[in-house]
Amino acid sequence: MAEQHTHAHAHHHGDKHTHISRGTYYRVFAALMVLMVLTVAAWWVEKNLLEIPGWLAVTIAMSIAIAKTVLIVLYFMHVKISSRMTQVYAAGAFVWLIILFVITMGDYVARGWPPQAGPLS
Fold first, then answer.
1. Residue 75: how many CB atoms within 10 A of its CB?
2. What is the pTM for the complete model shown?
């Protein structure tokens, strides 16, 4: 009996296992659907109703995309309930991504748009 008792509790390592509730998944899914509708609405408004400057359209689209990404990483990839080290690595990845975007957009803006005709054009 003592061996069965020990074996039965061998699966409990003393770790605190937290889980994300089903209701939270549904709320995150609903938020993602709202953000998807906002993405389509922003595109539709830009193409059909208003003359939105390119930089503003990109800023709106990137803001919505970042919000969707954060929700997916936190809840569906379980970073929210992961160890502190996992959270630090995930945050570091986001910081690195922002650095890459800033460098890329800085280069994009510095070149001017649309491209100017060069001497061979």
1. 19
2. 0.70
Alpha-carbon span 13 to 28, nearest angstrom:
31
Cα dihedral across residues 46, 49, 52, 54: positive or negative: positive
Q: Rounded CA gap, 57 and 97, in Å?
A: 20
**35 and 67 Cβ atoms separated by less than 8 Å:** yes
The span from the CA of 41 to the CA of 50, in Å, is: 12
Per residue of the chain (121 residues), what is the pLDDT tens digit?
444 544 444 444 445 668 899 999 999 999 999 999 999 999 999 999 999 888 899 899 999 999 999 999 999 999 999 999 999 999 999 999 999 989 998 887 787 766 667 777 6
Tokens at 50, concatenated: 């208003």
Q: Residue 18, CB half-sphere, CA atoms under 13 Å: how many?
A: 8
48: tokens are 């059909």
